[in-house]
């Protein structure tokens, strides 16, 4: 279809606007219908995608501000297409599993608008368009946390907004400078990343621009020391907010590194490999210890997400096909697994109205199906073989081992800490003596099973047979690495990329 990407981006927004006309009793059915159609559209995009072709496919270009080269420019490759599919998949399951009763109509409309912005971020090839979608995604998240969150929701939502907006403003300065530099070199204005690939940047300019983009992406990931907004946001957000935040929004930062920083600033990227790798290892080690100290289940999962994003960052800056392919695949794996964990925690909270670890014990005796689903998500979270996260982490460590065996061993050893606190959580909640007040709890109902079964199936299926996805990703990753090599000013950068 000629306008498939535009349809995929605009359909949730149109559905959100039409949702204003739907009555409250029918709004959940309406929201599920819209999200299912959106998921089917992204599946059609995947089926129609040529996995062996190099470069961007399904490109659409419509002029917005011709005099300054601002266009509605869309396109996907093997790096972005699966993140678009992941966005629609998790939004659909979140909508199906939605149990929020308070002002549900506005919540569903907000989530549909958020889905539009997330898809736009991964499909935009014009940096101004990318920035608009990037910034606009803050508004629905701010509204979801502030409107449906816990008692400290205003603090959490404002903290989230200030952190991410501050980094985005600095990134905007970098975008404007890069466009002006392109104008001075070519005599025409353009914000298209495909045009910017054709202009070589001096080494000193690359360093400054890398720093500007780095702040925007690092805060969104979030990297240490910019991470403090995430645990607060997760703790206060409703279940659907936590699912979308962990599954998709965090991946926008790591996607930005791969789409923009690596190909545009190859020499600066090589210069910052070891500092960023050290930051990534600090993320893994530090947040793993902090996670183990948590008493709140959602906070423990939130800190574990930061640790996993540290592993993803490590793979991104391996600067080889194994590491970057593993990084993108782990984005998908973490999106599915962390989303599944937050959904399960939300299901338990709806029964007991508590997120404290000490409030539970022995639940496996009365909720065996729930315990089984939780067990699958936990072992996938610690990258157990034949689960989806194992594939991504294996490729990442394989890739970064070529850069630094010592740092790779340290990072891989720190992963053991994740297994310790995850298994501790599972033992504490599901084993031991069942509390009297929990004896009346019921196992997963049909709606909850319908929500969780696809997540469990994907977790195991892609852990056993990841080839259809990894092959597609790898083709685009190698193309990105070739762009890096062509744009590199320094011979050392070309040598490292070749290796």
From TrEMBL:
Answer whether the UniProt record assigns the keyword 4Fe-4S to this protein.
no
- Name the residues that span the membrane: 6-22, 29-49, 72-95, 107-125, 131-148, 160-183, 203-219, 240-258, 270-293, 300-318, 324-349, 370-401, 407-426, 447-465
Q: For this protein, what is any one GO molecular function term?
A: NADH dehydrogenase activity
NADH:quinone oxidoreductase/Mrp antiporter transmembrane domain residues: 124-415
Q: Where in the cell is it found?
A: Endomembrane system; Membrane
Lineage: superkingdom: Bacteria
Where mainly located? Answer: membrane
- Top-rank EC class of the record's enzyme: oxidoreductase
Membrane topology, record value: Multi-pass membrane protein
A Pfam match = Proton_antipo_M
The Enzyme Commission number assigned here is 1.6.5.3
User: Is Transmembrane helix found in the keyword set?
Assistant: yes
**Family of the protein in this entry:** Belongs to the complex I subunit 4 family.
The protein's name in its UniProt record: NADH-ubiquinone oxidoreductase chain M (EC)
Q: Which organism is it from?
A: uncultured Campylobacterales bacterium
């Amino acid at each position: 279809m000629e306008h498939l990407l535009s349809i995929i981006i605009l359909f949730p927004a149109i559905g959100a606007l039409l949702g204003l006309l739907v009555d409250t009793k029918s709004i959940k059915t309406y929201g599920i219908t819209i999200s299912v159609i959106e998921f089917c559209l992204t599946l059609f995009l995947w089926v129609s995608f040529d996995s062996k072709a190099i470069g961007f496919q399904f490109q659409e270009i419509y002029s917005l501000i011709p005099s300054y080269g601002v266009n509605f420019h869309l396109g996907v490759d093997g790096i972005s297409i699966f993140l678009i599919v992941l966005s629609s998949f998790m939004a659909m399951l979140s909508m199906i599993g939605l149990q929020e009763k308070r002002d549900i109509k506005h919540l569903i409309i907000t989530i549909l608008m958020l889905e539009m912005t997330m898809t736009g971020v991964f499909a935009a090839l014009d940096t101004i368009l990318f920035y608009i979608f990037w910034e606009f995604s803050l508004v629905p998240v701010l509204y979801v946390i502030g409107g449906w969150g816990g008692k400290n929701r205003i603090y959490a939502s404002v903290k989230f907004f200030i952190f991410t907006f501050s980094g985005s403003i600095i990134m905007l300065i970098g975008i404007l400078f890069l466009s002006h530099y392109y104008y001075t070199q070519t005599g025409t204005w353009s914000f298209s990343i495909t045009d910017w690939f054709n202009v070589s940047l001096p080494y000193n300019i690359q360093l400054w621009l890398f720093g500007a983009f780095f702040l925007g992406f690092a805060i969104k990931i979030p990297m240490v020391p910019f991470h403090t907004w995430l645990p607060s946001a997760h703790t206060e957000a409703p279940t659907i907010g936590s699912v979308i935040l962990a599954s998709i929004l965090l991946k926008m930062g790591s996607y930005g590194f791969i789409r923009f920083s690596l190909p545009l600033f190859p020499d600066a990227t090589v210069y910052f490999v070891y500092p960023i790798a050290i930051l990534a290892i600090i993320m893994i080690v530090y947040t793993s210890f902090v996670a183990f100290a948590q008493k709140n289940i959602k906070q423990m999962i939130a800190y574990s997400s930061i640790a996993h994003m540290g592993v993803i960052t490590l793979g991104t800056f391996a600067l080889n096909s194994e590491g970057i392919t593993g990084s993108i695949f782990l984005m998908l794996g973490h999106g599915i697994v962390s989303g599944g964990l937050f959904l399960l925690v939300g299901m338990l909270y709806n029964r007991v109205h508590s997120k404290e670890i000490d409030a539970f014990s022995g639940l496996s005796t009365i909720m065996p199906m729930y315990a089984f689903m939780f067990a699958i998500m936990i072992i996938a979270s610690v990258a157990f073989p034949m689960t989806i996260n194992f594939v991504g982490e294996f490729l990442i460590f394989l890739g970064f081992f070529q850069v630094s065996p010592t740092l790779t061993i340290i990072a891989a050893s720190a992963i053991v800490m994740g297994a310790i606190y995850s298994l501790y959580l599972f033992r504490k909640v599901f084993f031991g003596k069942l509390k009297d007040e929990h004896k009346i709890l019921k196992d997963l109902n049909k709606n909850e099973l319908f929500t969780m079964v696809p997540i469990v199936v994907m977790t195991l299926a892609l852990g056993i047979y990841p080839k259809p996805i990894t092959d597609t990703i790898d083709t685009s990753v190698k193309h990105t690495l070739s762009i890096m090599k062509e744009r590199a000013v320094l011979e050392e950068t070309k040598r490292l990329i070749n290796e």
